[in-house]
Structures are given as C-alpha cells and as structure tokens.
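Study this pair:
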Amino acid sequence: MASKKLLDKLNDAIARELQATIQYMWQHVMLRGPFADAIGKEVEKIAIQEMKHAEAIAERLDYLGGVPTVKPTPIEISGELKQVLSADIKAEEEAITLYRDIIKTAVAEDDVVTKKLFEDILEDEEDHHNTFTTLAEK
C-alpha cells in the first residue's frame, strides 16, 4: 500500500499538528498585552483547526496501516507577543515545507487521497502563515 517513507512523513505531520495545537492553545491562554484578547482568539481558532488536521492525518495513516504518533514536535510557549508570532510563523513555514514534500511523495506513489488531504491542509497552513505574518507586521 503506502511506503514506509510516506507513513513516516505522515507521522511527522501528526507530530507537527500536535505541536501546533498545544503551542497555539497555551499561547492563547498565556498571551499578555493590549492586543492579547484579539490575537488570542485568532490563535485559539487556529489551534482548533490544527487539532482537526491531526485527526484527519491520523485517520489516513491508520487506513494506510501506520500507527499515529502521540509525541508532538518541540513546543514553544510564551506570553510575549513577538515571541509567540515568531514561533508560530516558524511552525507554519516548517509545516508548509513538509506538506509540499508529502504531496510530492503521494503523487509519486499514486496516492490521490493523501495528495488531496494534504492539498486541503496546505491551503489552511498557508492561511495560518498569512495570519501570523500579518499580525507580526502590525
């Protein structure tokens, strides 16, 4: 069915989504400053989307015969706005790079379902990146 390479990449994606879910949710809780409420609500909304991504990827991995990881990539938590946005921009950039690679791997393996799943998730991740970079500019 799927190669070990693809299964490993899907687990990498799950680890990133778990990281983003936890990182963004705790940032939402801990964010301080005059814009904390408005930005915190946006970060919380994105955290929930990331959790849904993790679930969708885990379901796909399970279908392909893999076992979803429960270990997130390293989490960066801060209550300081500049650090929050910098960490989140970096997390989104890393996810975008990984997901483009997963799409290429899925195409090479003729796995149209995984390709479509990651095209949809990639669209969300690019939107998250845009949100964080826009907020960082203000």
Remarks:
- DSSP finds four helices and no strands in the chain.
- The mean pLDDT is 94.
- The longest helix spans residues 36-63.
- The domain at 4-137 is CATH 1.20.1260.10 (Ferritin).
